[in-house]
Amino acid sequence: MDGQQPQIGDLRRNLDDVDTGIVGLIAQRMRLITEIGHLKEHGTSAIQDADRERKVLAGVEDVATELGVSASLVRRIFRELISESVAQQGSRLNGPAEGQLRVAFQGSAHSFSDAAARKHLATQGATGEPVGYGTLREVAAALLAGEVDLAILPIENTSAGSINEVYGLLREHELFIVGEETWKVDYCLAAVRDVPLSSLSRILAPPEGLEQCARFLQSLPNAVPTSYFDTAGPMSAVAAAGDPSVAAIGSVEAAEAQGLTVLRHSITDSGDNYTRFVVLATAARPVDARIACKTSVILSTRHEEGALLGCLEILSGSGHSMTKLESRPRPGRPWEYLFFLDFEGNVAEPQTAATLDELRLAAQYLKVLGSYPAKALRHQARPGSLPDAAETEGPAETLEPAETLEAVVADQAPPARRSGSHLLVDRASRAADTVVQVGDLLVGGDGFTVMAGPCSVESPEQIAATAKFVRDHGAHVLRGGVFKPRTSPYAFQGLGWQGLDLLVAAGRETGLPVITEVMAVEQAQRMAQGADILQIGARNMQNFDLLREVGKLDRPVLLKRGLSSTIEEWLGAAEYIVAQGNQQVILCERGIRTFERATRNTLDLSAIAVVRERSHLPIIVDPSHGTGLRRYVAPMAWAARAAGAHGLLIEVHPSPEQALSDAAQSLSFDEFAALMTQLAAVPGISGRRQDQAPV
Ligand code: PEP
Ligand code: MN
Q1: How far apart are CA 3 and CA 116, in angstroms?
Q2: Could you identify the atom of ligand 1 that is nearest to the CA of residue 662?
Q3: Is residue 600 within 6 Å of ligand 1 at its C-beta?
Q4: Would you list the DSSP string of 549-612?
Q5: Rounded to the nearest whole angstrom, what is the distance from the C-alpha of residue 233 to the centroid of ligand 1?
Q6: pLDDT tens, residue by residue, 558-571
Q7: Whose CA is nearest to atom 10 of ligand 1?
Q8: Count of H-run helices and E-run strands, the chain
Q9: How far apart are CA 654 and CA 578, in angstroms?
């Protein structure tokens, strides 16, 4: 013991030195950003350069991987640094720092609103202590009465949706939007001391906390949840009561400020849970045209058919991309609506000003709430590409709007009879290729998407190592079975839900979306909460109940071809999914059963040409199950790409011989790396439409 103390002390001193060094490097980075900002002040170029940001993130992730540091951690840190840099350059262009500002928010100290207010002050280079008020209405009143310079109010949450009262305040009062902020809402559970969760009898939480941690709360059968007024209040109530059987839900900062012990971190049901705040003032503020802006308006339309559509067309026709459309009732006018519209653009730009004039003429009422620097924008999705092609590729093309479905979603009722004779999945129903969006990734169209990983998730180490390797060698999606359809009931059946958690964790760590097989109707909903793509396996291709179930979910589905199914039956199965409303279907050719025994299945590559002619859905190829033997996987993968497939599904394992399922067909890491290099040299024709393909 004695000998150890000085050692720990030394190490901690070293750690302190490293931390000081990190802060020093951040300061150095900020100075460089300031210098670049000076140059931009004299130019006309935009402050934000998405391409450059992507390269910076990819570069630091590579370094992290080389050094054995979590790429996901490094990505998160650099995202923060970059957004801070952009905000700093932006506020410089917009004039000098504002000095002391009084900002009102709803709630008490250490609530998420307080944190967002502080973040806003910091990015403005301003100082000041945010002031908490009891209700949203009181915050607006304080701003209107001149008690404060700015107010910051939550307007939407990425899981709970819009906060209607704030829309009401914007409609009722002379308030203008001068900024927005986002805050990651990460709830924890805390109590006066460390107690087992089973001993808790009551849990205090703000209403939105109860809603956003519902699944976690269900896992505590003995505790009664109680709604409390704001995000920090429950923590102070628990601290004041001093009763160890009562816990609170709130931010870690609020728990720490009250001297509470955190019993469980990150209990929010959806990991990516953000609240967007609007910063309000009593007058609009001009923003430099080089800063990427959003503009918000309130609009009511004339009593004419297609009036709203006409207004939206004015925006899209002038290249203004809409980021949000919210409809709210018009008080005192039953069945009439006000629309709150956000779009990318800045009233300081002549083109946006002209578009607003046009909108004024088309609408019955229009109020411009203001233009402000955009902080909450969805990431631009990109098609999958092979390593060589990545550098030369331009930005993703915009997606075709989804076609309207005539299908009904009634439980077991057949979809309404369609007017035409074609299936919805037929090329005749939709001329353009369907491109399926998986997070920031586009599958289909011009892209080539590689999904890779083990047949089965076997252990944390196995899936984590495979995820890192395939990501570093160009894969776009991580695969891994957790419920396995095995021929023998005595064979390894998969790790089940525990396997899903491991797969999802590996995906998060590497930034890869994940795909896994759903075998039963009862699994579908829960699977969709973790998996980014739901796989329907060959054996379930005609499990019509399962197809209908995934057709009701808002999750991309990969539909494998059945072992002895014709292409017509396969497209019929896809129709079951699409007819329920879910058009995000990717087909996967994985070989069919023929008299041939030299390979596990006979990979039907002609299906690529046939499917692309008959259907608008993307098609990828699985040469692993298609051949069953690892030495044939690469040649069939090249052939699939050359024949026009939109991607591949490949089984990869750190030690294939030891794989608990499909050992003979799994590629080793080296074999996968070699395949990816060779693939880039094979010309794909996936970008061309069938009628343009060489014959
Ligand atoms: C799999 O992908 O692991 C699988 C079981 O595939 P298939 O349904 O094509 O046999
Ligand atoms: Mn398999």
Answers
A1: 46
A2: 3
A3: no
A4: HHHTSSS-EEEEPPTT--HHHHHHHHHHHHHTT---EEEEE--B--S--SSSSB--THHHHHHH
A5: 51
A6: 999 999 999 999 99
A7: 538
A8: 21, 26
A9: 37
538 lines ligand 1 (CB under 6 A): yes
The answer, yes or no, to whether any atom of ligand 1 lies below 6 A from the CB of 572, is no
Q: How far apart are CA 419 and CA 404, in angstroms?
A: 13
**693: nearest Cα among 644, 654, 627, 620:** 644
How many CB atoms neighbour CB 270 within 10 A? Answer: 15
* Ligand 2 mean position, distance from CA 162 (Å): 43
> Residues with Cβ < 8 Å from 413, sequence gap 6 or more?
none
Ligand 1 neighbourhood includes 625 CB (under 6 angstroms) = yes
pLDDT band at 379 (very low <50, low <70, confident <90, very high): confident
First to last CA, the chain: 78
User: What's the CA angle centered on 81, arms 79 and 84, to 5 degrees?
Assistant: 105
Kind and range of the H or E run holding 216:
helix 214-218
Residues 390, 384: Cα–Cα separation, whole Å:
9
What gap in Å lies between CA 301 and CA 308, rounded to an integer? 6
How far apart CA 563 and CA 540 sit, in angstroms, is 10
481 lines ligand 1 (CB under 6 A): yes
pLDDT single digits (tens) 460-475: 999 999 999 999 999 9
What is the average pLDDT value for the chain, to the nearest integer? 88
Contacts 24+ apart (CB under 8 A), 77-81: 81/26, 81/29
Whether residue 292 contacts residue 93, with contact meaning beta carbons closer than 8 Å, is answered with no
Ligand nearest to the CA of 540: 1
- Picking from 51, 687, 46, the residue whose alpha carbon sits closest to that of residue 380 is 51
pLDDT of residue 98: 62
Round to whole Å and give the CA distance between 383 and 392. Answer: 13
pTM above 0.70, yes or no: yes
Residue among 263, 267, 244 nearest 255 (CA): 263
Tell me phi and psi for residue 104, to 5 degrees.
-100, 145
Q: What is the pLDDT of residues 95-128, one digit of tens each?
A: 655 678 999 999 888 889 999 999 999 888 888 8
**Distance from residue 682's CA to the centre of ligand 1 (Å):** 26
**Residue 214 Cα, ligand 1 centroid: separation in angstroms?**
34
Cα–Cα dist 199/189, whole Å: 13
User: Can you tell me which residue has the tokens 């001093």?
Assistant: 242
Confirm or reject: Cβ of 537 under 6 Å from ligand 1.
Answer: yes
